[in-house]
Amino acid sequence: MPLLPFSACLLEASVKRPARVRALFALAVIAVSVFIAVTVPVRLGLDLRGGTQIVLETRSTETLDADAEATDRTLEVLRGRIDALGVAEPGIVRSGDNRIIVELPGLQDPRQAAEVLGRTAQLSVHPVLGPGAQSDKELPEGERVLADEEGEALHLGKASLTGQDVKGAEALFDQQGGAGWHVTVDFRDSKGWAGLTGEAACHPAGDPQRRVAIVLDNKIISSPQVDPSVACGAGITGGSTQITGSFTNEEAKELALLVHGGALPVPVETVEQRTVGPTLGAEAIEASAWAAVVGTALTAVFIIVVYRLMGVLATLALLCYGLISYAGLAALGATLTLPGLAGFVLAIGMAVDANVLVFERAREEYGARNRPSSRSALTAGFKGAFSAIADSNVTTLIAAALLFVLASGPVKGFGVTLGIGVIASMISALVITRVLAEFAVARRWVHRRPRTTGLASIGRVRTYLTRRDPQLMRRPRRWLAVSAVVLVVAGAGIVVRGLNFGVEFTGGRLIEYSTSDAVDPDRAREALADAGFPQAVVQSSGENRLTVRTEELTNAQAVEVADAVAGVGGGAEKVRDELIGPSLGDELRRNALIALGLALGAQLLYLAFRFRWMFGAGAVSALAHDVVILTGIFAWLGKPIDGVFLAALLTVIGYSVNDSVVVFDRIRELWRKDGKAPLAQVTNRAILQTVPRTVNTGIGVIFILAALAVLGGDSLTDFALALLIGMLVGTYSSVLTASPLAVELDARSGGGRGGGRGGRGRGRGRGSAGRTKTAAAEDRPDRAGAATRAR
Prior knowledge:
Helix content: 55-70%
Number of domains: 5
Distance between the termini: 47 Å
CATH topology of the largest domain: Multidrug efflux transporter AcrB transmembrane fold
Oligomer: single chain
Structural class: alpha+beta
Number of strands: 21
CATH superfamily of the largest domain: Multidrug efflux transporter AcrB transmembrane domain
């Protein structure tokens, strides 16, 4: 259906102003997203398009601190060096006070970049001995022939001054003299400058020897003539001089930066280096795209089977979610990395969760006596599910924000993508799905056939729970004992096997090769030992793929490693190369622990603020339980604990909190209606009423993660495995660890006294006036999952 007639139908069907506003907002968001998606391309990270990323760290010297100002000056010098490499669309930015991130797309040999970028900037000032010929080969030591700004060759004498003799440089505009922009240079060695310019002043005007050449990185950046007013032998006194010329504002400032930067050089050290071959990047994009298509298709089929017409509309909203997420990435100029691409696919499951919450709540409301139509049930479903959706998404945004602030590289990109995905999923579920659903249920043929909506039946899971009516919270300590046993077994892996920290957390070098022939890792290990690398760890990472992990190597040593692998593999092509300095590894490991601690603390504070302290304590304890179990399982399996694992771990935290929030939100609602009911009884009812949502959401997410694990390639297998394990453990712990623990904490603190406080202490005992409830109604959900109410 064309967009304009469709919008007209929406507006015509919406008789209330809020519905019109939602429809207009949805159309505006979709229209803007389409425009951005068509006109603004998303920038791909180096792990998707191939290339080299180098992180440099400036070091302080005896005369200069490596602060933000010194790093900025170093960055300007490095920018010129990068331009000399001839790399298309390079990127160079400062990170923090003393780090510079350099991205070189398409550059597969990091040795060339390291040689160019690693040299310390050196400024020198030379006398000009006359014109020079490029063919001059035999020159006295210290003399050289360089081209000036106009391309004319000059014969330069030995350096009279160096960058250490320059105090500073500043670009100024001469308003009175009319000389325009010029650069003022201050020298510490005023006598040296006076002697150099005094000797040049002894030559006639126009003679090349009357010039003084300022050289930076073996290139003349300025070669001014000494002014005719300067006397021979006297020179320019005072230690200050002006370089004049036809400078523009930008040219004068750039020259001042170069002179000042060369005058105050700070050494740089490579603390991180990543190289990804274009083949690996192309394979990752293709694998992730297939995973997205297959996972989304399976999820769409599942929700259509379960929710029928509402499932079809939710699928359309999911497509809009993908469009909005892509447009958000493009609009923010975010870089899409491989973990970020996985986060983009993963957030589809979160969008499904919001729709499932609404539809399950509408099913409950439809079965209640006061919700006789699909339209009213749907409205009540959106209203009832809003608080759970908002709270669960806020907790995920907290995890995404921590990733963005504390992580680096691709993992930071994952945090950005996850955050955009959460916001897009809320717009998709709460606005677009609602607009489409309200338009559909307002149709007469839908009203006559309510079962086509998927909301008129309570579903098999709820029917089974209603019939069996299990009392899960009758003995909460049993569930806590089971959790403790699982926790001890998984945690033993950390003690017995230890953690296999990746290069990111330990420092060192990891290189992945694609070999022509299949190679036994033992043979490659022997070859590397013979080459002088007995400590190298060799693993098979796929068909004809080898991963070599060693301590920190120089680029020359990396060539020796490549030769050894090629010798046993019939040839080897490097597809990935990661170098992490020990200082950065310590910092990343420290930041990972900080991120984990802050995540747990932030969840505790938020849940204590939104619910009660015992719920917050129960949820955070369940989170710690999930973290230990997931880490322990990876320890037993010998899987690496790296930045991608950290991204998966914090995502698991978000998912676990989502499930806990849904249960706690229902407890809060039920307790507000009857503040005198025991918490164990209310918790049992809340769990039974929310299990259908948990099951359906879990199945939808499993489809996504299974597609990532099977189709996402080797680089995403561990990521998907961690999320699958974490989702299963998190679902269990949120229901059968967090809830029983909250019940136990309430009992120890004098539970049974009521106090149905929700949010910030509101709603104590609210909603019980004017209603009577039978004991059976208290203990047993009705066919719609809500307590039976007698008027």
